Amino acid sequence: MWIRLAIGAVIALFSVFQYFTTSTVNPVTGEKQRIRITPQQEVAMGRQQAPQMAQEFGGPHQDPQAQGLVKAVGARLVNNSVAKKSGYPFSFTLLADPRTINAFALPGGPIFITAALLSRLKTEGQLAGVLGHEIGHVIGRHSAEHMAKSAMVSGMANAAILTGIDPTGGAIASGVAQMKNLSYGRADETESDEFGIEFMVQAGYDPRALIEVMKVLAAAGGGGRQPEIMSSHPNPLGRAEHIAEVIKKKYPNGVPAGLKP
Questions:
Q1: Could you tell me the pTM of the whole model?
Q2: What are the Cα distances from residue 93, in Å, to 59, 62, 182?
Q3: Bridge pairing between strands 24-25 and 110-114
Q4: How confident is the model over 124-154, as pLDDT tens digits?
Q5: Burial of 149 (0-12, 13-18, 19+ CB in 10 A)
Q6: Nearest-CA neighbor of 239 among 129, 106, 104, 108?
Q7: Would you say 101 and 138 are in contact if contact means Cβ atoms under 8 Å apart?
Q8: By CB atoms within 10 Å of each CB, which of 102, 206, 210, 231 scores lowest?
Q9: If we measure between CA atoms, which residue out of 110, 91, 92, 99 comes closest to residue 57?
């Protein structure tokens, strides 16, 4: 019993030590982050995962005009923001899935949006809001942060199972780990919304279009169906309120004139 406790303690302490002693400064944001992989490794991971992820959503859409729009808006956002200096090889792909309302970014730059979500957007600015948000995830290195946190909490959960401290077979430790990761996910979404606002304005889009995106997501079933604390994403209407507050703070005299809606 004591041997198992000792081994478990070593595993737990090593997991925590490795997490808190591995850090890097994000060259774009200046933020100190707990990350264990390099940007080059992120790019390699994204490229490896991209084909499989695309196929899960029906593969690339065959409409060249719609595909071209997504690529053009994405390129406009990158070329007019700090994303261009990040070194990540961004790519933008419209997926054929007509039912799943989704957009996501893989580590290192691949960004996707489904046809189901695009069909619900009414303006180019709303598309820019979606893609700008996803660019924010890449710039913020959120996937890399999440992997480092997951490695730590997994090590602690395994230690609890080994020592027998958690008689439910790690369920308690795993549950705590899951809740912790969900809270980090919400923080990442908020930060990416703020990145999206900045990128939109720099590319000539009205940031208020991102508020309309949140209303689209809420109408599609994203708002109010479960307690926010149990969701990996903040409630869309709550996000809309925060976005409005950020825009008001950034532009107290009103958003710049001439921005594309």
A1: 0.82
A2: 9, 11, 27
A3: unpaired
A4: 999 999 999 999 999 999 988 877 666 555 5
A5: middle
A6: 129
A7: no
A8: 102
A9: 99
